[in-house]
Design goal:
The chain is about 75% helix and about 5% strand. With about 140 residues, the chain is mainly alpha-helical. The chain has helices at about 1-15, 20-55, 80-125, 130-144; strands at about 65, 75-80. The chain has two domains: about 1-55; about 60-144. Strands 1-2 form a two-stranded antiparallel ribbon. Helix 2 crosses helix 3.
């Protein structure tokens, strides 16, 4: 029993401290912060613009009331405005992530091209090895 616990603890440490898990944790934290930015973009900028275009209508308030509220019964309504707002949020978040990934891929390609140019320049600047130079001198001396 004790040996199984020790083995399980070792497996857990290997899993928890593997690079991929730590990278994933960082991604979750950054993603959460990015989500707040996008939520603010939607709530504070895009939704008011949509309201301006639609004549001051707030999407969140759009609903179809089945039965109005009374003193004892709450309102029964289909809140399609909230649904529309969530769809807009989804598309904005998806588009933002798409742009972010696209920018990263562009930067990565530029970095890889620069690395290739640097490697090619290093190969060209390398020149012949000492052995090659000595062989060349030997061949020249033989010819004389």
């Amino acid at each position: 029993m004790k040996g199984q616990m020790i083995n399980m603890w070792k497996e857990f440490k290997e899993f928890a401290f593997r690079g991929n898990v730590i990278d994933m944790a960082v991604g979750v934290v950054v993603g959460g912060a990015f989500g707040k930015i996008v939520t603010s973009l939607v709530a504070d900028i895009i939704t008011p613009l949509v309201g301006l275009i639609t004549g001051g209508t707030d999407l969140k308030n759009l609903k179809y009331v089945f039965t109005p509220a009374t003193d004892t019964v709450p309102e029964s309504a289909l809140n399609y405005g909230l649904f529309l707002q969530n769809i807009i949020d989804f598309f904005i978040i998806a588009f933002s992530i798409f742009l972010f990934v696209k920018l990263i891929n562009i930067a990565k390609k530029k970095f890889e091209k620069k690395q290739e140019v640097i490697e090619e320049a290093a190969e060209e600047a390398k020149g012949p090895t000492t052995e090659e130079l000595l062989a060349e001198i030997r061949d020249l001396l033989k010819d004389k």
